[in-house]
Design a protein that fits this description.
alpha+beta, FAD/NAD(P)-binding domain, D-Amino Acid Oxidase, Chain A, domain 2, eight-stranded mixed beta sheet, six-stranded mixed beta sheet, 20 strands, binds 8-demethyl-8-dimethylamino-flavin-adenine-dinucleotide, binds P-hydroxybenzoic acid
Length: 389
């Protein structure tokens, strides 16, 4: 088989890239290790920057998002005895959209089906070859038979644990990492959201977040030690802990119910440089991970897709190489800013085991500064709604 762009990974990055390319007549094949049901069962991000909203519309997959998504013009940051509202609209003129990653993936699969896009599921042993030559190819095994796809370029959209990043020689690749000493226990429940907007709360017992997917579907998180296991947390214990950590007005109104998904995610900051090697381009979680505190993971995947899509368009339509040549530099400039923001939000809003009294006073004074400085609120809002592409 031959295609123009072989895409490894059928998560949001890979599907969005193939959808955008197809609409411009550029051919791709998506190779996904898991089944479609497995990919669609993963509960992940929920907050979309406006740039991502517009990119989904450009890809022709914005209809359901526009009908069912919820626009948020602000968010609440809470610490014991105070609540600070960050007014995105007033401070930046922009807003974010609440629409789950699961729904986006659904919409992208539907769109790929409708256009006859090729997505091969349960592709085992996917391996890129000849990435530093002019004629790369990818091999994989499906139903016990080995297949080969010849291509012009390979897009590595296969997440943090994929093969793409590992194909770059260690003499070329530089990795930067910070692992945080806690995780987030997340619960999805068919209950109304705690408030109209998201609440990020810091408490002496640790961080908590009240988020949502729809008017009847909520997503909540509490910071937990890495030694905790999901089995240790009954639903009742989760709700009791959440109520302790969030402001009183939200705790009193909180409607609890059975969890329909419960998991613990470790927190990590990670960047791999460069994001291009020969004819391989890394996209999304394959190249970088952020702690979820700034809601940036999925949004960064979208901005990578935007840069790569435009580079590929310029290559195929105008024969100009600059977009592809500049992909890694441009994408990394935005990635590092989102890394900085996610790291600073994480530092401000979590209890660290070794922070001591000094660290605690630093957090308190940072929140106090935020409460009383429009400049500080504007900086937070500008990053949260998303820096320009
Ligand atoms: P994905 O979504 O990981 O998709 C990669 C796809 O590649 C497939 N794959 C392979 N396919 C073929 N061959 C191989 N060798 C392969 N290896 C892997 C995988 O099966 C998968 O389908 O990466 P992508 O597309 O770059 O999208 C990135 C986003 O998914 C990610 O940034 C966010 O979900 C991060 N994230 C969150 N971000 C937020 O903004 N807010 C959140 O609340 C939030 N929660 C989360 C998250 C990520 C989590 N992970 C990765 C464990 C919660 C979790 C649990
Ligand atoms: C979520 O709804 O899952 C969510 C929202 C905001 C974040 C992280 C996760 O910062």
């Amino acid at each position: 088989m031959r295609t123009q762009v072989a895409i490894i990974g059928g998560g949001p990055s890979g599907l969005l890239l193939s959808q955008l390319l197809h609409r411009k007549g550029i051919d791709s094949v998506v190779l996904e290790r898991q089944t479609r049901d497995y990919v669609l069962s993963r509960i992940r991000a929920g907050v979309l920057e406006w740039g991502m909203v517009e990119l989904l519309r450009e890809a022709g997959v914005g209809q359901r998002m526009d009908a069912e998504g919820i626009i948020h013009e602000g968010t609440l940051l809470a610490a014991q005895n105070r609540t600070i509202r960050i007014d995105f609209r007033k401070l930046t003129g922009k807003a974010v959209m609440i629409y789950g990653q699961t729904e986006i993936t659904h919409d992208l699969y539907d769109a790929r089906d409708a256009m006859g896009g090729v997505v091969i599921h349960e592709a085992e042993g996917v391996t890129p070859h000849g990435l530093d030559s002019d004629a790369p190819h990818v091999t994989y095994v499906k139903d016990g038979t080995e297949h080969r796809i010849d291509c012009d370029f390979v897009a590595g959209c296969d997440g943090f644990h994929g093969v793409s990043r590992k194909s770059i020689p260690s003499s070329v690749l530089k990795e930067f990492e910070r692992v945080y000493p806690f995780g987030w226990l997340g619960v999805l429940s068919e209950t109304p959201p705690a408030d109209d907007e998201l609440i990020y709360a810091i408490h002496e017992r640790g961080f908590a977040l009240c988020s949502m997917r729809r008017a009847d579907l909520s997503r909540h998180y509490v910071q937990v030690p890495l030694t905790d296991r999901v089995e240790d947390w009954s639903d009742d214990a989760f709700w009791a802990e959440l109520k302790r950590r969030i402001p009183e007005h939200a705790a009193q109104r909180l409607v609890t119910g059975p969890s329909i998904e419960k998991s613990i995610a470790p927190l990590r900051s990670f960047v791999a440089e460069p994001m291009r090697w020969g004819r391989l381009f890394l996209v999304g979680d394959a190249a970088h991970i952020v702690p979820p505190t700034g809601a940036k993971g999925l949004n960064l995947a979208a901005s990578d897709v935007h840069y790569l899509y435009n580079g590929l368009l310029a290559h195929y339509q105008d024969g100009t190489p600059e977009g592809l040549d500049d992909y890694s530099r441009k994408a990394l400039l935005r990635v590092w800013k989102a890394e900085r923001f996610s790291w600073s939000m994480t530092n401000m809003m979590h209890r660290f085991p070794d922070q001591g009294d000094f660290g605690q006073r630093m957090q308190e004074s940072e929140l106090d500064y935020l409460e009383h400085s429009t400049a500080a609120q504007t900086a937070l809002a500008e990053n949260y709604v998303g820096l320009p592409y």
